[in-house]
Amino acid sequence: MAVLRAGRWRVGLHGLVLAFAIATAAGSGFWARELPVQRPGGTDQIVSVAPAGPAAQQAPGPLLAAPDSTVADVMNGYLSTGGLAVTPDVLQTDTYITADGETIYDVAQATGRSPETLLWANNLVDPGKPLPEGIQLRIPPVDGMLHVVREGDTLESIAARYQVDVSAITGYAPNGVQYSTDLVPYRLLMVPGGKMPSRDRVIMYTVQEGDTLWRIAERFGLQTKTITLANSLPDPELIHPGQQLAILPTDGVMVQVKEGDTVESLAEYWGVDPQVIRDYPMNGLGENGVLRVGQYVMIPGGEPPPPPG
Predict the structure, then answer these.
(1) Are 151 and 170 part of one and the same domain?
(2) Considering the domain boundaries, does residue 19 fall inside one?
(3) What is the tens place of the pLDDT at every residue in 36-80?
(4) Is there a domain that residue 197 lies in?
(5) Last residue of a domain, which of 192, 227, 244?
(6) Do 170 and 212 sit in the same domain of this protein?
(7) Where is pLDDT greater, at 26 or 158?
(8) What's the sign of the alpha-carbon dihedral 27, 72, 158, 62?
(9) Cα 133 to the chain's mean position, in Å?
(10) Full residue range of the structural domain in which residue 126 is found
(11) What is the dihedral of CA 139, 62, 79, 154, to 10 degrees?
(12) 200 or 72, higher pLDDT
């Protein structure tokens, strides 16, 4: 494994969304849940992003987790791979050690990988966030999504998750897989050309030099009006480097439930079918769920009503 070192190679709506994002990042709030770090066992060890060298004594706490970090700590019970049709080769990744203040954008330029590839491979969400010195970053061999095989995975389910054809996975020789029976739990799999899965939470994005709202929206798969509404931007053209923007998980609006609100009343106000709110998984409502005062609710496709007159 090669190691690369840096240098060498509604107005109120914004406040609600910001408060929600902070609560989520702090480990509490509407969608809070434990997000264990992915640490697969066996010969492929994919560890959490961590400082190296002298910076280890000064580095801050864990960086934001990726939208999907649901694999439990399995170092104490790696499953046997005996009986599988094929034992895949170990997927090789490089390691890049950051200089103080580098961002994922900088690392992307130095390594030739896309920011999206690096974000997903390292459980990060903001490509513009300065990183401490000595952080070890995984550098996948090609652009795409680095996947940790889980129990129950199939080639079809992995391909669907990252929006590619199965042939993208089987056609990448270092994966060493042709059938779902070739998949080894907790091994790394490269999904060339894969896209980030849908997020289930609000994240905060730091505007970079040269950013436009259109480019930011495209990066996160959203419409510009979704970001404009979530951040109460008076003019979408007037964003500036260093500005923090709340990025919703899908197009629409997020609201905080007030006394007297119902799914039906919210749906009517924001112009959607009530079932859209009930069916959105992270709202946790289902058919019989009841809204709670103070609860944050995502309304996919919601838009403000037209001004009167």
Answers:
(1) yes
(2) no
(3) 333 322 223 333 344 444 333 333 333 333 333 333 332 222 233
(4) no
(5) 192
(6) no
(7) 158
(8) positive
(9) 23
(10) 3-9+34-192
(11) -60
(12) 200
Say yes or no: 45 and 99 in one domain. yes
Distance from C-alpha of 306 to C-alpha of 309, rounded to nearest angstrom: 9
The 3-class secondary structure across the chain, one letter per residue, is CCEEECCCCCHHHHHHHHHHHHHHHCCCCCCCCCCCCCCCCCCCCCCCCEECHHHHHCCCCCCCCCCCCCCCCCCCCCCCCCCCCCCCCCCCCEEEECCCCCCHHHHHHHHCCCHHHHHHHCCCCCCCCCCCCCEEEEECCCCEEEEECCCCCCHHHHHHHCCCCHHHHHCCHHHCCCCHHHCCCCCEEEEECCCCCCCCCCEEEECCCCCCHHHHHHHHCCCHHHHHHHCCCCCCCCCCCCCEEEECCCCEEEEECCCCCCHHHHHHHHCCCHHHHHHCHHHCCCCCCCCCCCCEEEEECCCCCCCCC
291 inside domain = yes
pTM above 0.70, yes or no: no
Those residues with Cβ within 8 angstroms of residue 277's Cβ, 6 or more apart along the chain or in another chain: 263, 266, 267, 283, 285, 297, 298, 299, 300
If asked whether residues 108 and 155 sit together in one domain, one would say yes
Cα–Cα dist 271/267, whole Å: 6
